């Protein structure tokens, strides 16, 4: 991590630079810089039963893309489109190396693991009547049994984007006619039932869909993600509609046929970037941004079975302006609304970043798409640090705002943070002392603790993305999110702990930041450094040692060095 712009401003100390600093503080009073109150370290611990977990997804780690009878998924198709792409053909080879993954979790003291099941590994065509791949069924049985033998609870995602290719070809996947004879809901329901039947005796946490926003918008709207359907005016709205109905179907099957005997929970994982208004005049725009993003799925499922009011009115106005007789946003029937509302036992949240929102009312009506439909502009404050992924700016306080929004908007649900994390570039030498990831987890988990302990948000779980470096979708292996390093050129795919895994282990062991612990002392020493500032800058403190000299406090430096030496 390099010295910040404001550091160098303080060093040169000229009148002009100080003047610029003052001006910049005046211009960006809300989002810019370190805010002494907002950003202060909170000491304390999470509730006793708090769940610490890490996550992966089938296509991103399993490999074994065509073993036994596994069918191809839409991501196999995309990855094999041309020879220049990274593929998930081998990935981390977790299909064979899952016991090693489980030992990493055990090492870290994790008691939960969020992974996904590959639909075409279970039903090669996506349809049970065409046949079941018994090797696939055995694989997930072995994985679940090994987890439980190591005292780790499975949290299973049914769908993390790897749709069976045959379902896309036969029915248009989630574009399957959403008004008349729709089969995709039933097919997803059959798949869900099969998983409950086979694994529900041991799996007590089910997540129907991971980030339907991505599948809908990137998969069926923009079409850069699989299955690459480009229809940005309507594709995402039709796909989202079908996904919501498929989710409801899978929820009711659990409720009606399994809940009494198995006693588990079913939810969905939604992703959302927090939207903060650039100026006070942009407050409505920021709210609209969040409603179009999170509310699109959360409002029907966690509120009243229907899309957010602001989405419906905005889209109705657009229809008029575009000379259409019906809105591009489909409607649910009254029966469908009833069946959708309340279909989440918990609220799964994936969150990584925040955007600054401006009102852009009203965008032109030629080539309308989901982005222009919102009538907002998005940007980033100049001092928000950026991770390796182009979209990932580090804004820790955003997660606290978002958690508070969910509490207020959706009736105070139990929230499971099912993903949060930071990417590095793939580079040589490898980043094993991943201080920026340590800082990210430190700052974001502390904000989650503020939401829990100060704002009374019912946050039940925090899940790090990801246990391992893995196949990062269109970015392939060029972006690394792992707590553990994987050498993708090594046929054995050996895993190596990064420093962040040592940090995370201490965090889990301390269940937060308890007053007086060695761990909390280390975090106190790191706090301003992680926020790209210094104690002197924040408190006007002039004497004493610099922050940097206390960085590698013996307490964590030693285990980090040991972790590092494992790969040297
Ligand atoms: C999530 N974006 O995806 C997924 O659930 C993971 O599979 C993924 O590896 C992780 O976040 C990190 O990207 C996202 O472009 C993919 O804004 C793309 C975006 C956001 C989330």
From TrEMBL:
Its EC number is 3.2.1.21. Homodimer. The chain crosses the membrane at residues 12-34. The keyword Acetylation does not apply. One of its GO terms (molecular function) is hydrolase activity, hydrolyzing O-glycosyl compounds. This is beta-glucosidase. InterPro entries: GH, GH_1_N_CS, Glyco_hydro_1, Glyco_hydro_1_AS. PROSITE patterns: GLYCOSYL_HYDROL_F1_1, GLYCOSYL_HYDROL_F1_2. One of its GO terms (biological process) is carbohydrate metabolic process. Belongs to the glycosyl hydrolase 1 family. Keywords: Glycoprotein, Glycosidase, Hydrolase, Membrane, Transmembrane, Transmembrane helix. SUPFAM superfamilies: (Trans)glycosidases (SSF51445). The active site is at 419 (nucleophile). The keyword Ribosomal protein does not apply. The gene is LCT.
